[in-house]
Amino acid sequence: MLNRSMFIKFLLSFLIFAVILGGAFWLMDYLGTGGVSLEIVLMFFGIMALYVLVSFFWFVVKPVRSVLSQMQLVMNGKKFKKVYTRRVDEVGVLASFFNQMTQSFTEVADDIQDRNRILDELAVAAELQKEIFPDEVPQLDQLKIVAKNRPATELGGDSYDFIETNDKLYMYVGDVTGHGVTAGLIMAMVNAMIDSFATTYSNARDVMIQTNNHIKKYVKPSMYMTLVMLCWDKTANKMTFVGAGHEHILIYRKDKGEIEDLMSGGTALGMTEDASSTAVEKEILLGTGDLVILYTDGITEARNEGGELYGLERLKSTILDYGQAYTAEGVSHHIATDLSSFVGDESQIDDMTLIVVEKT
Description:
Layout: H1 6-30, H2 38-75, H3 90-132, E1 143-150, E2 158-164, E3 168-176, H4 181-198, H5 204-215, E4 225-233, E5 238-244, E6 249-253, E7 258-262, E8 281-284, E9 291-295, H6 297-300, H7 311-323, H8 328-343, E10 352-359
Antiparallel strand pairs: 1-10, 2-3, 3-4, 4-5, 5-8, 6-7, 6-9, 9-10
């Protein structure tokens, strides 16, 4: 431990100086010089003082100045260098502290740069995803459609779209497991596939089967997408649906003031190699003023500050409260308002999508 302190070093230097000076006095007296002249004493003091000054500069001032100069560069935001030393005294401790501190700064700066880069890329991806969603809903004489979507993160896993052909209008909502980058990518692929197959095949069932068979090639077994699709036949004025393991389809009957709750059925996209055995297209009979409501589980599984779920029954109750007096737009607005009031200041934990279709 003696060699680990500058104070000890200088104390040893002083003791050495005292011993040498004392020895000089003794030697001169022993040789019978009759005493020590003032010039000799001053010479020894001068030599030892010079030794102390040089040692102080070499062992203290120079290394401390080296560390302080690098610290100043850090504080000024300029490029700095690591301080290399083998010393284990206070200067060595100071240099080691500086190196560890700047290493931490470098790691934090790298993390910030990586985070900013990721955020920039997510922002670009989020903008691209917004471009995937339809800018406006189709305008048909027989239908009035209102759609809302609110992702929980920059990139959402919910999907919805309207695809119009010469004689059909396809509309759907889907929900990829989880949310974030992976969910956003799967959502984009499914959207592109449905858009392509809708112009190739003549019914919703075949569109769903082909989408499943192709998306299965690109997703892991743990990743899948639930989806329900409506198909409006413009010529026959007929509504059909086909499900892929999604939430319920809610139908509000205007003349009765009642809600029908249909299971969408089917198997989630990406879960099986071939969905032809589970994909079934069924008709929904609609009267004037009837509403068809599609939604994702981000709505029914939203929680308030007490941990209570919004739930399917509350969604139904809200539709019953406003379905008689309001059109699709009004019902959609009141569902969103009631949901917002229920959740309060709680953070949104999942993507939310709502489509309300009214038969006019």
